[in-house]
Amino acid sequence: MFELFLIIMIFLSPFLLLVLIKNYFTYRATAKEKSLLLQDKNQKNTIVTMQKS
Question: What's the whole-model pTM score?
Answer without folding.
Answer: 0.65
